[in-house]
Amino acid sequence: MATLIFGALGRAIAGPIGGILGTGLGGVLDRAILGGGGGSPGRVADLAVQSAAYGEPIPIVHGRMRVAGNLIWTSGIAESRARGGGKAAPRTAAMHYSASFAVGLTARAIADVGRIWADGRLLRDADGEFASPVTMRLHRGDERQAVDPLIAAAEGAAGAPAYRGLAYAVFEDLPLADYGNRIPNLMFEIIADRAESIDMGAILVALAGNADVSRRGDFPAVAGHAANRAGSRGEAMAGLFEISGAALAAGESLVLQAGAGGHAAIEPGDMDAHVPGTRPRPERRQHHPAGTAAGVEIGFYDRSRDYQIGLQRVRRSAASGPMLQRAIAATMLPADAKALAAAVLARHEAGRVRATVRLPWRHLDKTPGSLLRLRDDASLYRVVSQRFEQFLVSLDLERVATVPLPPPASDGGRPARFDDGPPGPTAMQLLDLPPLPGDLPAGPRMWVAAAGAAPAWRRAAIAVSSDGGASFGDAGTAPMATVGTTLTALPAGNVAAWDGFGAVDVELLSDAMWLEPRPTAAVLAGANLALVGEEILQFARVEALGGRRFRLAGLLRGRRGTEAAVAGHRAGERFVLLDPASLLPIDPGIDAIGATLLVRPQGAGDAAAPGQAVVVAGRALAPLSPVHLRLALVGGDVHAAWCRRSRAGFAWTDFIDAPLAEARERYRIVVTLDGRVVRQIESGTPACVYTAADRVADGGGARVGIAVAQLSDVVGPGVAATASIG
Fold this sequence. Notes:
The chain contains seven helices and 44 strands. 12% of the residues lie in helices and 38% in strands. Helix 1 packs across helix 4 (233-244). The protein has an eight-stranded mixed beta sheet. A six-stranded mixed beta sheet has the order 15-21-22-23-20-16. Mean pLDDT is 82; it is low at 11-40 and 84-93. A hairpin with a 2-residue loop joins strand 22 and strand 23.
């Protein structure tokens, strides 16, 4: 087929020499595409991978198509450092990266661009709204388009190309944090023509370029088509001829025809043409030796599944043999693809019948590609080759199917979709916590837990101000945390063992969130750590209650030094799963302790607001309360002894001592007599004595109370342990 096509095109454009070259090219394509030569006729061209290679073909798009395009220009990746405002600005020291670049889309003028995907996520929706702030300029590819101002500024007005005849998009300072600090793989929904569909004949005429080609008959329609980026315009044309069943007939001009339109009827008397003095040779028909195909598979781009690659198959009942595999870089519905597969199968079966006829010389106009009907035969034949000898025209014919098999019902399957809706507002929790597992900061550390209820919410940029909102610095991007609200009040429980009776119901913010049970060994190793109100706990059992509701049980209470918050819970408290991978840390620096920060999200669904205020208490630096405080009355003296705990090692592995996380070991002991504070003592060891003489000097009292808190050189005393004796 390609041999006929390109031979005819070559003769029309460049005369006899062009015909020879075209025939040679067509032969190569016949072997590579239509069988033999190691081609892959059943594989759809990969239009989903963006390339930056030199010499990469640029697709020619008709209709609507989703393509990745080529990276044709970039100024490189720019690096910047975030700076906060004010004396106590957060010391995030975050490096941020962006890139300015241009992506070539299609080698022709287009009407517009629809949706845009970045690494598979929707960057711009069908209404032209970007999911995050993006500066993009679209050059539609006309022959008069001007140089892009960014490229002109970077390359100089004299050396900057305008890329006329090429549709391309320019992105200016695109933030790269969401894409691993690299330029993402961008895919574009190209709208080359406003029409909902375009027939294959129109595409073939457009791809023929300068050749004078007219078309005749009815051609199958598709929503969009792209020339194979792995090959050439010629390969795309050969594939369209194969799928559509069209033929190119050469006469005074080239005629592209499909179906039975424009056929010629051969009179019965002309069928017996022969050289005078010789006997007439009868018409000869035969079946082509090629085996019967079991069916046809067609690969295509599925319009019902956001241009994902689809496959439709039509089988002959009770037939054996290989499946014919064909592919077309076109967008269509599954039912249309199945109809094409049925038509290809019908043509394959019909084409196994070949005929050879000899006609008078006046039939020289019956060139390859012409359609003929013989005698009173109802079948239609296409001329494959022509020979002219001794004023006789010998034609080799191939039968043509004119009525395709009725296709069965088809279903393209469920699409793998990304949410196209707006991301919605960000819900944010600001957490000043004790050190989390594996984390021992040298300064105060705040955590941002951010999430969104909308299905399209993924992440949000976070900005921080330390000067009352006069200026904000970029603190980084917060991923989705698992957050919610308690539906029941968590009862008080034992902090020294598993709480096997307590439970709490929580409702999560989004359907994208989930909670899972974990084995007790995993929980003891740190799994399922959560903040409920002000208490940090862990849970081993999870019961899904339906919707976004879960019941948590098998609890370890008062974790990470939060024993004081075990009592006093209520319904409606915050719930945050404390997974450091889903939280954004902010390190404001030692000099920010006691200062107020304003924190605000800057996602696509967040309006500019003053931000949430939080006072930096430096809880990650606060010592834990001592344990095992014991009081003994020896004579008239009260002897106190205790064991220290350490934020550098919550697990008491040797049951003897804990590592010292402070610069020096110091304790503050507050003494009360019958509830009134009478004395404050400091000790460098985990013990002290309140003497009988001091008790008399302090006015005496029936009951002695002792409160012991470890001291920090940075944030002062931690939580105190208390005991009394009397």
